[in-house]
Amino acid sequence: MLIFTSVQVERLRTMAEVSLIFFYAPWCAHSMAARQEVEQVAKKLSKQVQFVAVNCWWSQGKCRKLNRLYQYPTIHLFYRRFGPIDYKGPLVAPYVESFILRVITPLIYLPSKATLEEFLSDHESRVVGFFQFNSSPQPPGYITYLSSALQALKWDSHGVVRFGVVTSKQVAEAISVKDDETVYLHRTFNSSLIFPRQERNFTSDGICRWVFEHHESVVQWLQPPGTKSRLLERELNRGPALLLFLPYDPLASEPSALLQQVTDVAVRYHSCGSNASSVSLCCHSVVLAHSRTSVCEVCLSSWSSTGCLFPSAAQGEVLQTYVQHCCLHNLPVPVSAGCSNLLNSYSPFSQYSACCREVEPQLNQSEAKEEPRMQRDRPTPGAPPRAAPLQGGGITGLQCRTNKTLRFYVLDVALNWPLAVRLGASGTIRAAGVRSDAGRVFATIVNLKDEVHYVLQQIPAAGATLTESLEAFIRNFSAPYSVLQRHLVGEENTTEAERSDSHQQPPPPRRRLITELTTSSFLPFVMDLEKDVVLIYYTQWCGFCSALNHIFIQLARLLQGNSTVAVARVNVARNDLPWEFMVDHVPTILLFPRYRKDLSVKFPGDLPVTLPNLLHFILQHSRHTEKPEAACADGPGPSPVLRAEFVALQREVRALHHARSRLSQQLAQLWRDNRRLTFGTRSLEAQNAELQRERQSLEQQHREKSRQLGEAVKRLQELADTSENLLHENMLLKLLLRALKDRAEAGEQGDAERQEAEQKRSHMAS
Known about the structure:
Elements: E1 2-3, H1 6-15, E2 18-24, H2 29-45, E3 50-55, H3 62-66, E4 74-79, E5 82-86, H4 93-104, E6 107-109, H5 113-120, E7 126-130, H6 142-155, E8 162-166, H7 169-172, E9 182-186, E10 193-194, H8 204-214, E11 219-221, H9 231-236, E12 241-246, H10 257-270, E13 280-287, E14 294-302, H11 313-327, E15 337-342, E16 350-358, H12 365-377, E17 386-387, E18 407-412, H13 413-422, E19 442-447, E20 452-455, H14 466-478, H15 491-502, E21 515-517, H16 519-526, E22 532-538, H17 543-547, H18 549-558, E23 565-571, E24 588-592, E25 601-602, H19 611-622, H20 640-765
Parallel strand pairs: 1-3, 2-3, 6-8, 7-8, 11-18, 12-18, 21-23, 22-23
Antiparallel strand pairs: 2-4, 4-5, 7-9, 9-10, 12-19, 13-14, 13-17, 14-16, 15-16, 19-20, 22-24, 24-25
Helix pairs in contact: 2-4, 6-8, 10-14
């Protein structure tokens, strides 16, 4: 794997058909570890894929500007011009190699009907595209279909949904595809679909979204990223989940035997056919009169939710007569099995079915072992109606017959073993018929809503397979009254698993002042009848718990010489406890007195946790606990236990008298306080009335002032209007005076001119 700059990478990427670009940071330990894995893959696929490494740490470099990288390392794959395809799987060489091989061959060529049937025989969804290459080397839509197969790898790194291509019209007719450029989605449980080109755009994104919206997933792969993520929480919140930790080889051509067994169980669990309908059966057994070995079961099939409504005894005799006279003559001799149906009424919601068979008198060894169980399960003539047994082995169609639907998830045990240990895996479990190097196998059902999970116990080494154990595990969980016991995870599970992996001997026990309890040692220690147990609930992240440690240590030192008092603590964050022993907050201190474990006492929350308070709390609740068997030790007369109880009752009576006197004093004080508050209330009411009167007076003055202010505003407005009118009239007068003045000046000038003209005329006349 060569290291290049960003400019060189862009040039080299256009020259190769498939390229892998490894973005890393030199300081990142994950990058260095992943680099070794990628180099292993590069040694195998260097002739088919171009491997390039880019140091994308420099913030001012072109790589950081062109690529938005949120973590290191990051792997991008390019197929010709399509990309980048972001690899989100584990950074392990087999997984990376498997993903690259799927990018190299995104489509599987299906030349014949046999290969098509083999391609569709898998339980997972398969996509088939039909394109005829007769007219052109690349028919229209083929590149779009190829791009959709590559884009699907962005969402599905495991490659659960595979894409195939058919070029022969005869092969396409096997799946009822006749039109060219057709995309066909094969499904196991529901009807297969054809891409609706009239409703959706025929683009790579449109095809991809359509496939993942409608595909069926029987078993879903989970791969927690190993960092803070809500992947597991999001899946577990959807409902009860069956988590299977299995060995997995991504490069294997065929699925492993264990994975095939799990897939078969999941397919039968989801197969809601005729055997998995919502019909509930209630059956009666009828022994035929002429033969003791011929038995008929009359079952009532009901689609209602009212339960088993079998007819009365008289009607039951009618049914027996019907079976003997109507069904018996239709059965061959010797009788093996036969059925006959009749309607109970004209209602379409119920019918009777009579099924007859012959009971074999001889049983083989395996049947003889199962005979007691069969006798218990077999209905007795005249017995009350019972629910019919599970059909199809009890697992077929169970999804549709229970309200606790399971989701199947598979995890690689080699990558997720710490999670399995946290869920209760305590060692290596190997299934029968599997090679010894197949690795660990672990199965658990997690119900996050009920906050419980169950663990599949170790599989027997002989005569059993994972299928049988898994089916029994699922049936027990789906039963209305499950026999499964809630699994409690404690710190001892993790330590034992780590020691089994590293082959270490357990450390020698050490003498401690405070006993550290775990899930397995909790009940035996706390329920010890000979000891008063002081139990401290804490967690490693609780700061208050750490701050009180010195007080608990001092308490344990003071009680170290007392053999009847034990101080213990339990980390509730790492140890699951039974519901009746859980607390709502930490730290919490409980006292379990000897011989009286049902009278456990909690340290008062309103008292400070100090050494004197703890000692008083322990002495107060543990001094009168005597052994119950001592009542018969002294023969006739009052026993020590009764005397102790009598003394305790006397003390309680005195305490009650003292409490009554204190309560009387408190009531008197409360009465005086009440009188004082009553007088204070009356004074406040008088002051309030005075304030109300002042408030009303002020409001009245405010209204009067507001009225006067409004009148003043009106007068001012009138004065302003009058002033404006006077100014206007003054301006008009000025203009009039100016006009008169101009007219007067013009008249004077005219008179002067006339006089001057007359003078000139008179002068000329003279």
